[in-house]
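#dry-run=false #mode=assembly
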Amino acid sequence: MIEKEFIIENEAGLHARPAARLIKLAGSFLSDISIIRDNKTGNAKSLLSVLALGIYKGTKITVRADGPDEITAMYKISKLIENNFSEED
Amino acid sequence: MSSISIEDMIKVLDMEVVYKGKSLSIDIETSDINRPGLQFAGFFDYFAAERVQVIGKVEMTYLDSMEPDIRAERLERFFSSGIPCVLISRNMEVPQYLLDAAGKYGCPIIRSKKVTTSIIHRMINYLDSALAPRITRHGVLVDVYGEGVLLMGESGIGKSETALELIKRGHRLVADDAVEIKKVAENRLIGDSPDLIRHFMEIRGIGIIDIKAMYGVGAVINNKAINMVIYLEFWDNSKEYDRLGLSEDHMEILGVKLPKVVLPVRPGRNLAIIVEVAVRNWRLKQMGYNAARELDNRLNSMIQHNTMEQL
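#status=ok
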């Protein structure tokens, strides 16, 4: 299991479109991936679960990946978050 | 252990701040309360200083009747013990000596219009619920025939689709995807939805839908006690699924044991009907009727009968 912390820099926060990109990416891995905000945990493969966390600009989140491809998953997700959820790699 | 700030409690229970103290964001960590009569009388052994201290008519009258110097000494000891706050009931006037003693330690004083017993009841109820252990689980919570059913299973197994079919058949949605579960009593779990996504659902290929707008208020409910877990999984040919229903499986959430039924998923299997049947069957069992055992009894008596005849 690996964990990494991020601060969301995206101007509009994690609204529907960026969230959809995130879950699409998360869904392509075998590992369990979750997003943790304060004491709430959301399944990164489920759109509503991620939206329910209410993540806006400046929010600190922790991404946790657990499974056979956790390292690749974390690498790809880090890139997506660092690129402010834009689609290009 | 969770905690709740005095500020939040004041808002919900319609209380008034008499003296703000150092801060109203002090946390209350227990739902127990203390009426400090004995402490005012000088007995401080086993004093529960972490609790909200409730001063009612009796305590107030007693304080008023005390010698000022003894009173000052007891109040000094009372407030110096680090109590979270003092609650005055019946909208009673707060005497200056109490304000002075509280002011020295910056301890908030709040007031309610209600009589003592009534405000204590409401406060314990509220604190019990606000301080209850909670957890978020991935799944869908539906009310089926009045029973709270938590559908669980991997992403993409068809939990939401099953729930949608159940809603169409007249059952009610509590929460999709993220279910917030709260342990309100030793054996009771209440599930509800995070406010942001309440009564929304995600259906692959269509996207986000609003169940309340689409199916009306009759199709949704805000929270529900969870009675059983139905776990959906891909049909595994190497696995032996329950054929009889004599054994019972369980799942533990926040220390509460819930009956669990594992349903294998295969194309063409109408899961909503099977979920309905699982709930009906569970209700029958609750009422003392177990179909598998009944069949077993019939078989046993037939076998016994035949053996007798052969003798």
